[in-house]
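Entry 12.
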Amino acid sequence: MRYEVDPYNRLVLRDTATTTDLPRFRKVIDGKFRVDKNNNLSYHIKAPLPEANKVPRQFKLKGKWSLTESHDLKLTLDKTCRKTFGEQIIVKGEILDVGAGSVLFAMKTRTKDSRKTLYVLRLGGAWKADKYNRLSFHIQKEKSRHDILTFTGIWGINKAHQIVYEYQKAVLIRKKKDTRTLTFKGYWDIGEKGRITYVLNKRGGSYLGFEVKAGIFNKKYIKYEVGVRANRLVDPVNRTVTLFGKWKIKKNIGLVFEIQYSGKRVHAIGFKSEARLTDKDTVSFRIKNNIMENETESSLKLSHRILSGDGEAFLRILKSKNKTGIYSGIACRW
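Predicted 3D structure (tokens):
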């Protein structure tokens, strides 16, 4: 007996024992795919078949997850499954949503009475950026193992400072491709040398750390260039990450850059810096954060007017030091 998956994500039983010239026996097995807590795939049959002595009520499918070019789920099967299921199983559908530690995959099926239904598979794990600055999802498996879904397209940034990923999905009925958009809800941080990080779930280890080319500090924004290789054999595509916000001095923290995200959420990035009064209306900061070491590119000038609140006390300290440079402190890293 051999099994394959039809266009409606149903298992099809194919009798390979037939030696006649007649068409081989094929039987659709009405059921649904499921994933367990270790993200292993199984197929559960809804109702017993007349061939119940040959067909079990549940199939457990062991293998390695990956993502196809059209962003369908592919399970490359272990050797024990290949005799009856072939080399791989492709579950067709589309990515419904991406969470801090999950991917929701929507898939269509058809019942015996030809009704079309929709259900969702949830894969758990953590988001990472690979060495080519591409988005990847590490699916948690047994014994600390993981499979990787690599998103080979180019990501961007929307007006709310969120990472947005777009891909093309073929629609067979209309014989065209539609654009699908995935939005990642997190916040930016800067701490590790040579990288800028988009944090989704710091406790769960779900964050995207990108290698940066260059950075600019401005009184209204911070800007970095990130090179992304959609294909490791071609030249990287430059993506500009521009974070708009406000510079402030916070007591017991120092120089911070506050960014407002969707839902009026505010997250502050803390910087270790050396400050110096340059004239009656300006404070010059030398950013000491590990991500940038070039003194020219990591310098910043802010007016006294911007440094209101806690910044006023900070200015008095500078004046009392007779314009000598001091360290303004650093925020706690995530």
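Annotation: DSSP finds two helices and 30 strands in the chain. The first strand starts at residue 2 and ends at 5.
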